[in-house]
Design a protein that fits this description.
This protein is an alpha/beta fold. Helices cover 36% and strands 23% of the residues. The strands form 5 sheets. Strands 3-2-4-1-10-9-11-15 form an 8-stranded antiparallel β-sheet. A 7-stranded antiparallel β-sheet has the order 5-6-7-8-12-13-14. The protein has a 5-stranded parallel β-sheet with strand order 19-18-20-21-22, sandwiched between helices. α9 runs parallel beside α13 (398-417) and α16 runs parallel beside α19 (569-588). The mean pLDDT is 94. It binds 5-amino-5-deoxy-1-O-phosphono-D-mannitol. Residues 296-299, 343-345, 348, 351, 394-396, 484, 601-602 line the site of 5-amino-5-deoxy-1-O-phosphono-D-mannitol.
Length: 605
């Protein structure tokens, strides 16, 4: 993953590089670095381990002059988070920043060593700098040297090259990893995404797979994978939509949780007009016999919830898989299947690869994405926006419930198109769905109670989450949220599965969070809860008032959600999952918005 930036500017470029990197920190925060070329053509760099703020401090004490530069924020893949492994990597007259993985770097390195060139880091990226520097030393021009190196690379990369003595030159290349070129007035920019470039320009050209480009202040020249000079369209992006601020909240996550009623409302207004479902042309659920949902992490769990909806409401067989497994198990697909890639960022490497695997084999491929300019949005036959607005916190909250809202609309459309529900039933389900934003607004009031329960959870070594039916994936999501934010080990289980092994984990020290709305499955879930309590397990029951009353005594604590939402209740139950994890993280003092070892957008396999 990692974020890269390049600027051919008209002012001191270091502050601009750092500003752009701030917008890319969601891609990783193990280290950061910048390199510049000053007016005399001198190439120099500064790097610092840890978050960007460390690099900013470094630049205050040790400034880096120049109007041209490249920058990088790193999520470590090869080599620990040390300064030696931080980008930019430099060899002789070239500095390089990279996002992706050079898979044949060991061979490239061995060859360099046989030429007497010793790497200074443990990274795959450094081989790119070493080979390019070597080619320059052999008398090649910067473009020839970059091309000679690119020809040797296997794997995925977005690369930016900066050269000593060349203050008006950046070379860029992409294969697998995204890269955007920004057009200014007498200035040019390069970035992992358009959001990074938003402070500088709203005119963006996306490089396509296999492209390489030469940027000067006069513009950009692009060559495709076959080496033919080519033209890529330039689009205007909505810079307003890229504004990033905490809006008075202590953490982005708290703000993003609180935004859910509004953003889900926007989703529903976008896809529903009265009792009519409004979807783009080309989604014919009557013509398909299977839907395949693929995503990673929370996005995968949104698909897992939706599987219940597609199967129960629409009678449509639904496969759900994590993208990293899907792409390599070569699942048979048919031209009567609909493939849906679910992704907040739209850049997740595994999900993108799964889409590429599936798109020519199925009737239609859909990208369900929050970032409308992303690779998945561009590469799918059809992009359906999830309209959550920018999500900064690494832990997904509003993006999840907005994904669920769009999936709920799709499931209802599938049920309608396949004549599985009549108009009255459709109207009743739409009423339930439209009630969700207001119900979530009420559920937000549980924040304080979740804070109280978090003091208890924060003491635990392990926490279990149980749910049944469509609440089972919400239990998985609760456990995922707690792990990623508070570093407490947590697992989600289907309530009925507990007795087949995991019940051995139950003792008085393991909090068990039970999700049990007062619905048709309630009694079954409560029986499983009793089995936990009979073994001295301490239960936090999350239900509605009727459920809490019917569950009887014995639970350690309970949280009452409002009643309503029909089969779309999982969206509601997501809220206490988010708040429990959030407040537990705050109680433990972990880094809520940027938990250790993680990145928001996972652009490596
Ligand atoms: O951008 P994507 O939705 O494709 O990201 C998928 C996962 O990496 C993401 O949902 C991850 O699991 C979140 N950090 C969970 O909160």
């Amino acid at each position: 993953m990692c974020g890269i930036i390049g600027i051919l500017g008209s002012h001191e470029v270091s502050p601009q590089l750092v500003e752009a990197l701030k917008r890319l920190e969601y891609r990783g925060y193990d280290s950061a670095g910048v390199a510049t070329v000053d007016a005399s053509g001198r190439l120099d760099r500064r790097r610092a381990v840890g978050k960007l703020v460390n690099l900013s401090d470094r630049l205050v004490h040790d400034p880096l002059p120049g109007h041209s530069g490249i920058g990088h924020t790193r999520w470590a893949t090869h080599g620990a988070a040390t300064e030696a492994n931080a980008h930019p990597h430099r060899f002789g007259r070239v500095a390089v920043v990279h996002n992706g993985i050079i898979e044949n770097f060991r061979d490239l390195r061995a060859e360099l060593e046989s030429l007497g060139i010793q790497p200074q880091s443990q990274t795959d990226t450094e081989t790119v700098a070493l080979w390019t520097g070597y080619h320059l030393d052999q008398g090649m021009t910067p473009l020839e040297a970059a091309r000679a190196t690119l020809a040797r690379l296997e794997g995925a990369f977005a690369l930016a090259f900066l050269f000593e003595g060349e203050p008006d030159l950046l070379i860029a290349a992409r294969k697998g990893s995204p890269l955007a070129v920004g057009h200014g007035t007498g200035e040019m920019f390069l970035g992992s995404d358009a959001v990074a470039l938003a402070p500088f320009t709203d005119r963006i050209t996306y490089l396509e797979d296999g492209d390489h480009a030469v940027l000067t202040r006069a513009g950009v020249q692009i060559w495709d994978a076959a080496g033919r000079q080519t033209h890529r369209a330039t689009a205007r992006i909505d810079v307003g939509a890229t504004a990033i601020d905490r809006g008075g909240y202590r953490h982005f996550m708290a703000k993003e949780i609180a935004e859910q009623p509004a953003v889900i409302g926007n989703v529903l207004n976008h896809y529903l007009k009265g009792d009519r479902i409004v979807l783009p042309e080309g989604l014919d659920f009557a013509a398909i016999d299977r839907i395949v949902l693929v995503g990673c992490g929370t996005a995968h769990l949104a698909g897992h919830v939706a599987k219940y909806w597609f199967e129960q409401l629409a009678g449509l067989p639904c496969d759900i898989d994590v993208a990293s497994e899907f792409r390599y198990r070569e699942p048979p697909l048919s031209d009567r299947s609909l493939f849906v890639a679910i992704s907040q960022s739209g850049e997740t490497a595994d999900t993108l690869a799964a889409l590429h695997y599936a798109r020519d084999k199925v009737a239609r491929s859909v990208g369900l994405v929050n970032v409308g300019t992303s690779a998945i949005a561009r590469d799918a036959d059809l992009a359906l926006p999830t309209l959550a607005g920018i999500e900064v916190s690494v832990a997904s909250s509003k993006a999840f419930t907005c994904q669920l809202a769009v999936l709920a609309v799709l499931a209802l459309e599938a049920a309608r198109a396949r004549c599985r529900i009549d108009d009255a039933a459709l109207a009743a389900h739409l009423r339930d769905l439209r009630a969700v934003p207001a119900l979530i607004a009420q559920a937000l009031a549980l924040s304080d109670e979740c804070r109280v329960q978090a003091d208890w959870l924060a003491q635990a070594r392990d926490v279990l989450y149980l749910g049944r039916g469509a609440l089972y994936p919400v239990a998985l999501e609760g456990a995922l949220k707690l792990k990623e934010l508070s570093y407490i080990h947590a697992e989600g289980y289907a309530s009925g599965e507990l007795k087949h092994g995991p019940i051995a984990l139950i003792d008085g020290d393991v909090p068990v969070v039970v999700l049990a709305p007062h619905d048709a499955l309630f009694d079954k879930t409560i029986s499983n809860m009793q089995e936990v309590m009979a073994r001295h397990g301490r239960v936090l029951l999350i239900s509605d008032a009727a459920g809490i009353a019917a569950a009887g005594d014995g639970v350690t604590a309970s949280l009452a959600l409002p009643q309503g939402g029909g089969i779309f209740q999982p969206m509601l139950y997501a809220v206490p999952m988010q708040y429990l994890a959030y407040h537990t993280a705050v109680a433990k003092g972990t880094d809520v918005d940027q938990p250790r070892n993680l990145a928001k957008s996972v652009t490596v396999e």
